[in-house]
Amino acid sequence: MSTIRGVNLGGWFVLEQWMRPELFEGVSGPDETVFCKEKPNAHDVLEAHWNHFITESDIIQLQQQGVNSVRVPVPWWILGDAPYHSALVHLNRLMEWCDRHHLSVLLDLHTTPGCQNGFDNGGVTGQIDWDKNPSYLPLTIERLEFYVKRYHDHPSFWGIEVVNEPHWTIPLSWLQEFYRQSYVAIRKISACAIVFHDGFRPEDDSWKIFFNTHKMTNVFFDLHLYLCFDPKITHLDLHGLSEVAWTQRRELIQSIQQFVPAIIGEWSLGMIPEKTLKGKDYFQQELALRTAFAVQLQAFEEAYGWYFWSYTIWRPTHLGWDFKRLTQRGIIPAKFEKPIE
């Protein structure tokens, strides 16, 4: 496979309030668990969302732009009670669209039983019990097996990420054992790509030992490299953030690639605008966003590939997270490469 130049289809099969706020009107929390408990006619609302949030025309647009892969967050609960059964229909349809339009698919287990990070994207805000209940690890692997068995022969299926953003408080020894067991289970089914997230500790020496010891094949290491969350850099201006992206993160990618292929599974142009873009007029803000895109991309092209977060944000703000609007505004190039005829 050539270098991955991809986009996340976030907020579709795992809801996040900030990505489509009107869905959560009358709901007391930002995650899908509370949405399904409190939203009147939750099933009907979800069905409408699944039908319209991403369509085949979006996949066509991505293919014409030169995007060659999508990372698709999926929940562990997809086999639970209604309304989740019907989500599989929409996931099946996406796989067909991607096959038709020559995009590969990385499925990403974005939630786990007990929740792996306490974030809205983990399905249960404020709870991190995934590593505390001994039944949760085998249940997680069972759901990974389900996804791989279902799609491993599909032409558009490239691989699976076994968990998204496990919290930095989860011991790496526990996380790496989960990764080892996941790898063994998946390899009994498929030789597909398997992606492991860094647990927010990409520079820990244990990763090199882990990958060198287990000698796994067709595995990738996922780094999420945002400019707006790390308190060590959020005070920086555009020049400082560009230096972080071009120097520090480029060197990190190069060092990791010495022992395992790296993928930047999530990144964006979210840059805390009140600081980074303060005092700039409209034209200067556009230039700043173009600069931030180009500098990050120059660094991330050192990796095996990257996926921008995210394809679409259904709100008038948060431009820096919205690949579709950024493309329409000319901040992201309309063409990455010559599309397949």
Brief synopsis:
The chain has 341 residues and is of the alpha/beta class. The chain contains eleven helices and eight strands.
Compile the SSE list and pairings.
Elements: E1 4-8, H1 32-38, H2 42-52, H3 56-65, E2 69-74, H4 87-100, E3 104-109, H5 136-151, E4 157-161, H6 172-187, E5 193-197, H7 206-214, E6 219-224, H8 238-256, E7 262-266, H9 273-276, H10 282-300, E8 305-308, H11 323-328
Parallel strand pairs: 1-2, 1-8, 2-3, 3-4, 4-5, 5-6, 6-7, 7-8
Describe what this molecule looks like in 3D:
This protein is of the alpha/beta class and 341 residues long. It has one domain (4-328): TIM Barrel (Alpha-Beta Barrel). It has helices spanning 32-38, 42-52, 56-65, 87-100, 136-151, 172-187, 206-214, 238-256, 273-276, 282-300, 323-328, and strands spanning 4-8, 69-74, 104-109, 157-161, 193-197, 219-224, 262-266, 305-308. The protein is globular.
Number of domains: 1
| Number of H/I helices | 11
Tell me the structural class.
alpha/beta
Radius of gyration: 19 Å
Biggest beta-sheet profile: 8 strands, parallel, barrel
Number of strands: 8
Separation of termini? Answer: 18 Å
Order of helices and strands: EHHHEHEHEHEHEHEHHEH
Widest sheet: strand order?
1-2-3-4-5-6-7-8
Share of helical residues:
25-40%
Which regions contain 5 or more consecutive residues with pLDDT less than 50? none
Looking at the overall shape, the CATH architecture is: Alpha-Beta Barrel
Query: What is the average per-residue confidence, as pLDDT, rounded to a whole number?
Result: 94
CATH topology: TIM Barrel
**Based on CA inertia axes, which overall geometry fits?**
globular
For the record, the CATH class is Alpha Beta
CATH homologous superfamily, by name? Glycosidases
Q: Percent of residues in beta strands?
A: 5-15%
